[in-house]
Every structure is written in structure tokens, then in C-alpha cells.
Structure to design on (89 residues):
């Protein structure tokens, strides 16, 4: 990966604060995502959870496919930090 590709990948990967619930069985449920501009987004539903890598944003972890305000998106738990891949249009 050259420097330009690496810069693009780093700009797509956004570390976010997440309010989560950790159940006694070890299940982690994200509830609220605080975006980089300070806005909070409630996670309406967790649709699936699986260990997966993201080529678009670089990195891997546990992928949570979630619904937020009716929009389906991916968020990742990478060891102890959450990130979202910024959508490009």
C-alpha cells in the first residue's frame, strides 16, 4: 500500500465513543455511537456479529452490523476501541 492509499484508509477509519452494555455472559451490545462531531446516534438494532476484517478502513475486529436511524452500517470493536468506516459517496 503506498502513502496515498494509506492516508485514504486512515481517513476512512473513525474511532468513536460508544455507550455499550456488557452482559455477564460476555455479550457486548453497542447502544449509542458518539460521532466525531459530537452528535449521538442510537443503535436501533444489532443485526449480526462476527469476527471480520475491513479492507476499506484497514483493521479487523468484531464486526457489528447494526441499524441506526433506519440505516444499516458496520461498526467494529478492535480489541478495546470502537471504530466506524466513514462512508464515501
Amino acid at each position: 500500500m503506498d502513502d496515498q492509499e494509506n492516508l485514504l484508509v486512515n481517513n476512512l477509519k473513525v474511532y468513536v465513543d460508544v455507550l455499550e452494555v456488557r452482559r455477564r455472559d460476555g455479550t457486548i451490545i453497542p447502544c449509542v455511537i458518539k460521532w466525531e462531531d459530537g452528535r449521538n446516534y442510537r443503535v436501533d438494532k444489532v443485526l449480526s456479529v462476527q469476527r471480520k476484517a475491513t479492507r476499506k478502513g484497514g483493521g479487523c475486529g468484531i464486526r457489528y452490523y447494526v441499524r441506526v436511524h433506519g440505516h444499516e452500517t458496520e461498526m467494529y470493536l478492535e480489541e478495546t476501541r470502537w471504530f466506524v468506516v466513514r462512508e464515501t459517496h
Summary: Strands lie at 13-22, 28-34, 40-53, 60-68, 71-78, 81-85. Residues 3-85 form one domain. The radius of gyration is 13 Å. The mean pLDDT is 85.
